[in-house]
Recover the amino acids of this structure.
């Protein structure tokens, strides 16, 4: 996978191919407490352009899923929230290049597949995306830890009003 920014080409260091044909590209980033461990995430769905995922994208999708199957979606959200404590930042540049996703295997996501009938995204995509975002978020400096994902998932699990959820999903910094 390839994208251009400011006239410079960037090649993916890892491509994750999903069952529905979507490809998640992982690229070298340069931010955080350790820039050699940072990543950028892009994805390409079949017959669509390359996109950069934002929290608001998967949040809206989970809210749609919740309207169709509240209990299973809340269980999936709790699974994603618990994953936050299990997943660590990349330990090295080599670890980043391998980019192994251990918490979103097809076996672990199988019980949530019914949610694929609702919304835009498959649970495989949401799971992989969030596992990568957790790794990226945990690369922030220890004195100024990022907590967007954790706070966002808590708001969704606790079924806060839409204003609170969208505010957390769209905050910058």
């Amino acid at each position: 996978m390839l994208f251009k920014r400011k006239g410079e080409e960037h090649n993916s260091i890892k491509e994750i191919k999903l069952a529905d044909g979507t490809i998640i590209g992982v690229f070298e980033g340069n931010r955080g407490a350790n820039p050699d461990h940072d990543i950028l995430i892009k994805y390409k769905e079949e017959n669509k352009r390359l996109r950069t995922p934002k929290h608001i994208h998967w949040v809206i999708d989970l809210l749609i899923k919740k309207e169709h199957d509240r209990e299973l979606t809340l269980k999936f959200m709790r699974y994603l929230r618990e994953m936050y404590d299990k997943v660590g930042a990349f330990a090295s540049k080599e670890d980043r290049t391998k980019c192994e996703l251990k918490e979103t295997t097809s076996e672990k996501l199988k019980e949530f597949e019914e949610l694929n009938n609702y919304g835009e995204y498959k649970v495989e995509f949401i799971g992989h995306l969030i596992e990568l975002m957790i790794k990226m978020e945990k690369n922030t400096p220890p004195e100024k830890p990022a907590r967007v994902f954790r706070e966002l998932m808590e708001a969704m699990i606790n079924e806060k009003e839409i204003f609170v959820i969208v505010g957390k999903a769209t905050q910058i910094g």
